[in-house]
Amino acid sequence: GRPCDSLGNFLPAGHPAEPLTDMRPDDWSPYSSRLEFELADFLFTRSQMSAANINELLNLWNASLLSTGGQPIFRDSGEMYKTIDSTPLGDVQWEKFSTSYTGERPTENVPPWMNDTYDIWFRSPKEVIRNMLSRPDFSDAIDYRPFWEYESATDSRQWEDFMSGDWAWKQADTISRDPATHGSTFVPIILGSDKTTVSVATGQNDYYPLYLSIGNIRNKVRRAHRNGVILIAFLAIPHMDKEHASTDAFRRFHRQLFHSSLAYILHDLMPGMTEPIVMRFGDGHYRRVIFGLGPYIADYEEQVLLACIVRGWCVKCLAMRQALDTNALYRSREHAEALIEEFDLKNLRDEYGIIGDIIPFTSGFPHADIYELITPDILHQIIKGTFKDHLVEWVESYLKAMHGTVKANAILDDIDRRIAAVAPFTGLCRFPEGRHFKQWTGNDSKALMKVYLPAIEGHVPVEIVRTFRALLEFTYLIRRNVITEETLVTIEDAINRFHKHREIFHESGTVQTFSLLHQHAMKHYPDLIRLFGAPNGLCTSITESKHIDAVKDPYRWTNRNKPLGQMLIINQRLDKLAASRRDFSRRGMLEGSCLTATMQLFSTRGSSLIIH
Questions:
Q1: Rounded mean pLDDT of 160-168?
Q2: Is the peptide bond before 209 cis (omega within 30 degrees of 0)?
Q3: What is the DSSP letter of 73?
């Protein structure tokens, strides 16, 4: 995108950017000093101290200051919170809209969900993006235009960050053909959502966060917990008893509530998808910006909801759910709309896996094909799904089928002993009791992948070993930061070898079919890499990790009485403190320690007094 002035007029090449700020390097506003800011940041962000403990600490500290003639820092937690809240940086206010069921109702025994009101809290995605683009610490890790990248040694194409993919190139090419948008910077909107539970012990505490990122920032930033992924909404979760939860009416309402909520939250981006909006970037330049709905990060349960697909069908292609091990054409928005016009709801469900009575949130947005925008999910499709839930479980079933339960258990115990005997080494996780623990995390499955293959060697036929080897090769190749044309060839070879060697599980009667969604998804990875770049920049592990910072930790800070409102304020204060730290750091105001800076200040003042 070409730099322009604040009114959108393009600047000549090489024109310098305006200074980002005219604030002095000793202006700590809204804080009175570095000590005041660092104290607020330490107590709220790093220590996550409760208001009661902050009050106790400030009471003791201020008493000691007053006894020596000093001035109090903050009187109490309320004054500290008020100072944080007055920070203009990173300030995007939370808003709320409410919705309810408006369809037909039965004449009697009306289900409670039809009378309920559902609140959705959100922040303006346009303003969140404005803040993200303006960050100076992103200026060296942002791509202003799509590009094709080539390996210098072989001159073959390679994919790394999102803007190196074909999808962004195609979108920018469309923008460049329109004289009204030519020269604009394309900003792809990356979304992600997933329900999460914060506390099982205290009752029903599920939350439904919606996150936003942009495709311009590089994968390493999106993965590195540098606020490259921002919480923008809490979606509503309609709760219902078992009697009504399985009804068609409730399911339809639940799906439409999700899509209508997304459409409403994103509506302020709509004008900027056809007409440029001027925004300032972290390098100091203004640029015309064109938004576009980009990839959506989601696990399978979320994907079928997004794509309005029947559970058990592939969201990417038209393969029949009873024959997912076959090849099929990709789904598309145009094809789905044509089918919905032609067929009734039953035929749509049975023949194409389409839920035809839902209006998807993408329907009003230009160039938005939800089938194309569903991203690969390494964590759930490959690591948890194909490896842990399929192959590891199949080995146990195979051993029992071949040797009987008693001998199979003895072999499995030996496999566990081998896993437990792994020597400590950097990058390896130890399993002192083998595989036998209830709560498996994604990191546990990743760790088991590193030690499982040698543990089963000698206990299973070579074809099973080769099946695991092919899957491991596939997994480590798609997790690379940079993927070349040669790597894609190797990935496709690993898929073919996996399909060939897994047949032993079918021949032995261990499994009856390979029509399995997770394993089916593997064949789509080469095309998705060409579209979106390296998959590790769009994996659900990014949003699941964000749950901790944006949902679970803030929930723990609350007093559990109407916690959502408190969580919104906590997230807003965290954003403001992070924005202040970035601003102060950019102006060189946080060099060294607070103590060192204070001693230097007193030293300078002392010298000044002697001179005068």
A1: 97
A2: no
A3: S
Listed in sequence order, the residues at least 6 apart from 518 whose beta carbon sits closer than 8 Å to its beta carbon are 380, 381, 382, 385, 386, 389, 390
User: Which two structure tokens, joined as six digits, stand for 485?
Assistant: 């044309």
The answer to pTM > 0.85 is: yes
Helix (H) or strand (E) holding 57: helix 51-67
Question: pLDDT tens digits, residue range 264-280?
Answer: 999 999 999 999 999 99
- Residue 99, pLDDT > 90, answer yes
What is the pLDDT, as a whole number, of residue 609? 38
Distance CA 516, CA 324 (A): 6
List the alpha helices (DSSP H) in 535-593. 540-547, 553-557, 563-586
12-21, 199-208, 344-353, 360-369: segment of lowest average pLDDT: 199-208
Residues 6 or more apart whose Cβ sits within 8 Å of residue 392: 435, 448, 452
Structure confidence at residue 606 (pLDDT) = 57
Which of 200-204, 449-453, 493-497, 516-520 is predicted least confidently? 200-204
How do 185-193 and 209-214 pair as beta strands?
antiparallel
Q: Residues 534, 481: contact at Cβ < 8 Å? A: yes
Burial 234-250 (b: 16+ CB within 10 A, else e): bbbeeebeeeeeeeebb
- d(C-alpha 445, C-alpha 111), whole Å: 42
E-strand stretches of 261-349:
277-280, 286-297
d(CA 145, CA 499): 38
pLDDT digits (tens, 9 = 90+) for 281-332: 999 999 999 999 999 999 999 999 999 999 999 999 999 999 998 899 999 9
Question: How many Å from the N-terminal Cα to the C-terminal Cα in the chain?
Answer: 54
Q: Residue 187: CB partners within 8 Å, gap ≥ 6?
A: 129, 133, 214, 215, 216, 289, 290, 291, 292
Nearest to 230 by CA among 208, 215, 210, 216: 210
**Type of residue numbered 509:** G
Provide the 10 A C-beta neighbour count for residue 354. Answer: 24
Q: Tell me if 387 sits within 8 A of 440, measured CB to CB.
A: no
pLDDT-derived band at 225 (thresholds 50, 70, 90) equals confident
Angle between the N-to-C axes of helices 77-85 and 51-67, in degrees from 0 to 180, rounded to the nearest 10: 110
pLDDT given at position 608: 46
For 466, other C-beta atoms within 10 Å of its C-beta total 16
97: helix, strand or coil: strand
Edge-first strand order for the sheet with 149-150 is: 149-150, 157-159, 483-484
Contact yes or no for 375/339 (Cβ under 8 A)? no
